[in-house]
Amino acid sequence: MAGSPIKFGTSGWRGIIADDFTFSNVRIAVAAIAEHVLSRKRTPTLLVAHDTRFFSEEFARTAAVELSSRGVEPLLCFVATPTPAVACEIRRRKIDGAINFTASHNPAEYHGLKFSAADGGPALPEVTHDIEARAARLYARTAERKASAFPSSHDAAAFEQVDVAPPYLAQLAELVRFSELKTKAAPRIVYDALHGCGAGYLDRALAEHGVSGWETIRTQRDVLFEGSGPDVSESNLKLLSETVVAQKAPHKSKIGLATDGDADRFGIVDADGTWISPNHILGLLYDYLIESRGWKLDAARSVATSHLLDAVAATHGRKVHETPVGFKYIGQLILKDAIALGGEESAGLSIRGHVPEKDGILACLLVAEMVAARQAPLDEQLRALFRRVGREYWPLRTNLHLPQEVKSRAVERLKSDFSEFLGRRVAQEDRTDGLKLIFDDGSWILLRLSGTEPLMRVYTETPSQAESARLAEEARAWVFAAAAGGSR
Predict the structure, then answer these.
(1) d(CA 167, CA 34)
(2) Nearest-10 Cα torsion for 174, 177, 178, 183
(3) Claim to verify: residue 251 and residue 281 sit in the same structural domain
């Protein structure tokens, strides 16, 4: 019998709809989660949420029925709900966690399940390993594998239906200075929901606080996401860029904001339509929060994230905590009130006093506030920051789709020690997550397998875009050469 397909990656379990992400397998995953929470508490309560993907409501209803049948009380979100709002509600109600049906930024054919812990953050590895083990045992027992009957809306009618929007929006009001967005210097905002569940949240926040001069695009549900995925990548935000440029407003008074499928990631487009790297946004926002809030605290970043954050921290006499990839590690530092901001290069961040989970809605609003307060577009702010820290930082992520044999050989080769790599002297090796080599000029490269997709990711950072791209291409050639038995 084949092994269980229920495996938790960097951010939950994801699979292809009707292939491995089926009603039968969802029931097994939910049953395993129920077993886990029941092992810790006699009468647990879990929030059940979903995004805008195909069959999202049906998967959520199935989960609620399964939980109830096993003695776990479900609270069912009755509309598509952003991941950060789920985290906020867990903490507000002081319940035992949440099951959230979302595949985040992945293409339309994917669906997924995230399990959040009682602290509101993504479940830590020891928890997901336990759930995986329980799921594997349930999967192996064919008697437990129920037929994949289509769930009726009546099946979940008896469960408490909850609206998490009001308390979440109230939380945003405590973190964002909406007054800055109502001044004459405030930029005209275009918000792109990418057909995800940020619609009705970010735009509602602007409306409730009396912010004017904004518009929305792609707020309606589209389970095919226009043929791609709800990712906040540069290519996916072309329409947002065009819409920003077309705005009849002064050149420096415009900004584009975007959130991904479950609104835990952010995308930013500058006044001239240029997509701004999330890495650069992290450095700018950390600097702005210290400046505007007076938070003399450290920052945190994943091992794959720009060292611009480190340079900003140094200018303020602070340091940066490095974590493996996965926001669950940064979230623990948020809970301890040890950092002002924590972020990942994959467009996720949270700040002091907020949830230990990525929040794309908050990130977008803070960027808009920063542009209004500083009265300068992001490219000007970034150039000024580079001058202040004394160096430019240009990170790049490249995805390598590798045949299994190439991947296996390359991974084995990466276990070697390197004093030199691609003709560059290695000053430091970092194996926090994959292999990161920091060169003597401060540039670096990281090679690691993706925790959410069948890829090897190559991260590079140098003082110029051209050099970062060149290093990435050299690394790609090295991976294939190493797999074939080539040299360093």
Answers:
(1) 26
(2) 160
(3) yes
Distance CA 94, CA 86 (A): 12
In a domain, 313, yes or no: yes
Domain range spanning residue 139? Answer: 13-163
Query: Cα–Cα–Cα angle for 218, 200, 263, nearest 5°?
Result: 70
Distance CA 107, CA 468 (A): 27
Q: Is the pTM value of this prediction over 0.90?
A: yes
Euclidean distance between CA atoms 322 and 435, whole angstroms? 14
Rounded distance, CA 62 to CA 56, Å?
A: 10
Rg (CA), the chain: 22
Tokens of 29: 């995953």
Q: Where are the alpha helices (DSSP H) in 46-157?
A: 56-69, 83-93, 125-140
255: nearest Cα among 363, 350, 155: 363
Number of domains into which the chain is organized: 3
- DSSP category for residue 159: S
Bridge partner list, 74: 46
Task: Give how far Cα 67 sits from Cα of 44, 46, 62, 102, 387, Å.
Answer: 10, 8, 9, 18, 55
Q: Which DSSP helix (H) or strand (E) runs through 370? A: helix 360-374
Q: Tens digits of per-residue pLDDT, 112-169?
A: 999 999 999 999 999 999 999 999 999 998 644 555 555 655 666 688 999 999 999 9
Closest CA to 9 of 115, 109, 86, 99: 115
| CATH number for 59 | 3.40.120.10
Domain edge (last residue) among 111, 139, 163: 163
178 assigned to some structural domain: yes
Q: Backbone phi, then psi, for 40, in 5-degree steps?
A: -110, -20
> How far is 318 from 153, CA to CA, in rounded Å?
53
**Bridge partners, 239 (sequence order):** none
